[in-house]
Amino acid sequence: MTGYEGADLAIALINVVLLGLLFVIGVAIARMRSLFAIVMLSGVYSLISATWFVALDAVDVAFTEAAVGAGISTALLLGAMLLTSRTAKPEPRAMRIVPLFAVIAVGCMLVYATIDLPAFGDPDSPANTYVGTAYLERTPEDIGVPNIVTAVLASYRGFDTLGETGVVFAAALSVILLLGFGERSLSASLRKKTDKKG
Amino acid sequence: MKTDHHVILRVVAKPLIPIISLFALYVHFHGDYSPGGGFQAGVIIAVAVILYSLIFGITPAMRAVPPWFARSLSALGFIIFGAVGVWALMMGGNYLDYDALFNEEPGGHYGQHYGILFVELGVLFAVAGSMLSIFYAFAGRVTEIKDEDW
Questions:
Q1: B34/A contact by beta carbon, under 8 A
Q2: Where is the MrpA C-terminal/MbhE domain (chain A) (predicted)?
Q3: Model ipTM?
Q4: Cβ atoms of residues B56 and B48 within 8 Å
């Protein structure tokens, strides 16, 4: 990991800056009422987490996060936002205490859990010893594909990916069942608009 | 006159949309060698159409990529994925066992290579079609995004 002196320090600094930005954006999203600003900030949140995944050497995850989190979910949330009012209802002060306690409690548990985690990039950690090394060793002769993530995703774990594709398909199907096909409701609302004019 | 103040947005976005689609194809066909694959490529293609509909309006987007096409694409993708598995079954292998696809010698990688490519193509179709269908379902319910709504 160290290419030159101080590389570890630089990476640690980048991590701190990115995670600090994520924290600030998270707090800003929680405090805001304008839905448009919240949707945009959640896109920014995804983009910064994608950058952070690159810093962690998880390029495939970063790519997916940038495409899905910052790209399509922002666009879908914008579409969903237009169906409702533009600002969230302010809730009474007493109602805010319970979520705050829940967040602090879960945060403490997560921090407590990280104490047991192996260090980042630890070669003896479970993720890097059993199946992980087996995939790394066997992919060149089994699959012959340079990107091991693709090999695991599409070939070794093909059934999982088939299931995921089914989930995506089912998600689209359920949205269509709930909201309608799109073109029919569009033409209906267009007709209503011209009726009003005429 | 009412669309005139978006002219810069339209002019800038128009050449970007084919480049975005081209990049999606690169991401898909280069998925064996670099980060990416069918899922990301499908999302990028859907984003290209959604960008078009955000800038030029939902009705021209529905004329360019009809909702029935998006729906069928998503079903077709799922079918392609499953069909690759059935193809392997027909060739005497296990379900989704790409080594059996071409009846090649042990150690050959054609089956794995094309199997992964076809399967990822199925994922691309399913994801692009599903994302577009979801977007159309949401966007079809509001007539047009008015300027004061932003």
A1: yes
A2: 124-179
A3: 0.84
A4: no
